[in-house]
Amino acid sequence: MRITILVAALAAVSACSPSIPDSAAGVGFDDYSEYESRRQASAAAQTGATAVPPAGAMSDEVSTTAVTTQPLSATTTASADDTDSETLARETQAALAATRANSSQQPLRANPNNPAPETVETASGISTENDFDAVGEARSIESDAELIARNREQYQVVQPTALPSRSGNTGPNIVEYALSTKHPVGAKIYSRIGINKQSRFERNCAKYSSADRAQIDFLANGGPNRDKMGLDPDGDGYACGWNPAPFRIAVNG
């Protein structure tokens, strides 16, 4: 009797207690893909947006059954290697054509049957002209004697003749005058009179291109005894600073 009452009491208590959810359900225990699909479907239902397709889904645009099969063109089917090969072949043909145009000779293509190239040997040793044996074979003492005799027959001696004389009056010879004097520049030998001698000297000497020309003109007009143009104000017999020393050195050393 007591057992029956106890069982009935436990049944009544169980009926009054709320149900406890299954703690085994949730993200940590269900498949993640299914959980993500349910979560996205719930979010789409709340916002009115289209649900994101689950992972691995494929649209009709890329489906093999939805795409119409069309033949590929020749350009599409050509691979990158084929394109590079054609380009290289065209460039090679163009280079060969340019070579033929420049040398007018066909280029030699690589072939095991081609003849071997000509071997060029580098010269070594002394030349034939410096080789006594080679010279001895080509020439002899008799032939050299004949060559010397022929050269002597063609040899001509030109006898010296007298130097040509100068015609006409060429003016004073400053070299002869330099060698006939011995005094240095600035030593007064001849008397000079007049006023403004320095200014006349500078003005008149500026007309000559060189001191040699001034000395020639000075001697041609009465110098060294007289100085009509004022070219020798110090009376040394040398006009416009002309110096006889280089001529003396050239002769006497």
UniProtKB/TrEMBL annotation:
Residues 40-57 have a biased composition (Low complexity). Transmembrane segments: none annotated. The keyword Iron does not apply. This is Excalibur calcium-binding domain-containing protein. Keywords: Signal. Residues 35-132 are annotated as: Disordered. It comes from Roseovarius indicus. Residues 61-72, 100-113 have a biased composition (Polar residues). Residues 1-24 form the signal peptide.
